Amino acid sequence: ADAETVSALLCALLRDEDDVAEDAVLSDLGIGADDFGDLWDAVREELAERTVGPEIDLGGFDPQMTVSDAARIMASLLAETGAGEDDE
Question: Three-class SS of residue 25?
């Protein structure tokens, strides 16, 4: 799963009534550390098995990051474990 795929998924998960842009800041969307962990769980569940992919250290969570920043981090973590790749 690349950052673009993860970003599209995050935007879909975060959309309430309005569209969410990739450059939206997480804190502006009301996303805190607990919510970020829940988003990571949802990404792992959608793109891999929930048990695949490392836990995110929420101590390093920056609420000022954008949706695309979070997507890049999550895609990188999935790539490290090989999660979200097509089985060949």
Answer: strand
Cα–Cα distance for residue pair 59/8, rounded to 1 Å: 25
How many whole angstroms separate alpha carbon 27 and alpha carbon 75?
20
Measured CA to CA in angstroms, residue 24 lies from 33, 64, 82 at distances of: 16, 9, 28
The total number of residues shown for the chain amounts to 88
Give the other-Cβ count within 10 Å of 6's Cβ.
Answer: 26
Work out whether the CA dihedral 63, 61, 55, 44 comes out positive or negative.
positive
- Helix H or strand E segment including 11: helix 3-14
Per-residue model confidence as pLDDT tens digits over 38-55: 898 888 888 876 555 566
Burial class (CB in 10 A: 0-12, 13-18, 19+), 62: middle
Mean pLDDT of 60-84: 83
